[in-house]
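Entry for the shared binder. Reason: the reviewer on the internal report wants the predicted structure included alongside the sequence.
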Amino acid sequence: MKGGVISSMELIQEDLMLRINLSTNSDGTLDINLPRDSIDSLSASGQDIDFIVLMYEGNSEELIQKDYKVIDSNGEFRAINIPIKNGDTRIDVIGTHVVPEFGTIAMIVLAVAIVSIIAVSAKSRLSIMPRI
């Protein structure tokens, strides 16, 4: 990134987007490689379509759609260049699908495991402290 610093990035599955929070000190650009297995924008026939890039300027909640340039594209990632102005605070890159690091199924498996452990320990009266 030229012209600022990225403070955080987050994949938001519900909104099919990558949220990038940033702090800018001048006009510049952001070059980003978007892994296709994490976020992509495809048509129903599997062809690449444009991402939607929304910019938040300053402290306002006003969204402005930004144009971007495709730098490179292959089977693993799409590289894009987004122009940035001084005062921009957040960029949302919206695609057609997003795969979060920890999905819903992982959370369900974790919840079932915890409930099972609690049920088994309560039923068998297992205790951590040894009986004397």
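Summary line for the report: The mean pLDDT is 82.
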